[in-house]
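[step 3/7] fold_predict: job queued, chain A
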Amino acid sequence: MAKEETKPIRFGILGCAEIARKVSRAITLSPNSTLYAIGSRSYEKAKTFAASNNFPSHAKIYGSYDAVLDDPNVDAVYVPLPTSLHLRWAVLAAQKKKHLLLEKPVALNVGELDKILEACEANGLQYMDSTMWMHHPRTEKMFQFLSDPNQFGSLQSVHATFSYRGSPDFLENDIRVKPDLDSLGTLGDTGWYCIRAILWAANYELPKTAKALHKPKYNKAGVLLSCEASLLWEDNRVATFYCSFLSDMSMDITAIGTKGSLRVHDYVIPNEENEALFRTSSNSDFGELSTGWNPKPSEFIIKSDIPQEALMVKEFANLVGGIKFGDSKAENKWGIISRKTQVVIDAVKASIDNGLESVLIRY
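[step 4/7] structure written:
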């Protein structure tokens, strides 16, 4: 395989969404990728986006998404379009032989996602969703603890949250509250992270059932602004999550095992860009006169040279490079993880729509 620094993967971006600013910076920070093209429905909008986000002078500026996909020099595309447009443009990107980094939520339902994954597989292309925290070195360290039978034991319960308080303008005008653009609302946006965190803690073993816990909150257009649900496994392990556009910032995971527990308060976006913290406790008991813990919880700080979104791009570009310059095949684990996340989202949505009834989860 060619060296990363000599043959960087050339990225095209479809659209000028706010999140694309963060990912375009990540592409620049990643050592094995380069910003090659940006396309928007307006040439002027694409030109302005490129200029304000430090695109290299040689980057191609296009006034359509099709033009990016038709450029033979684009190796991979990042698609941050509204979820309702993912099926069309992700499948078209695959048909044009472009590797796919797809913003979450990846689809409106698992049927749509299956068509996207089938298109990537049929064309031998790498797929990955843009769940950035999965690529931080902290995530691997935390999972090592969860996998330790002596320190953590077996998983019993997980609770995950992701909430932030949307401004009045956000709640009125953002694409995430528009039924024709992102009809899943907070469940697709912040709920995606919660469900992914739960599946991650459970080593991606799907739960048996999903059940919404209370009547969700909607906007006047019928889009979810806040909801909560529980997930139950065959062996009675349980998980709960809360996601919302109406509450103060929260990004917590609490995982409890038979011998230990894990707590992290900023799993989606670390408080500091180049370091991240988590806490564990193992085999704890009450201290003297129940005035403290014995032993006390441990705290770990994991540093990173580049931010998690750049690590995501680096890993994706490395996989793409292995296909383009070597004899590697596409890594299918990312499609499997995406699909499991979407399956649980679909089940929670079905529970909400069915009056908070419990829904069987079928992969």
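[step 5/7] annotate
The domain at 9-131+309-330 is CATH 3.40.50.720 (Rossmann fold).
Residues 333-353 form the longest helix (21 residues).
exit 0
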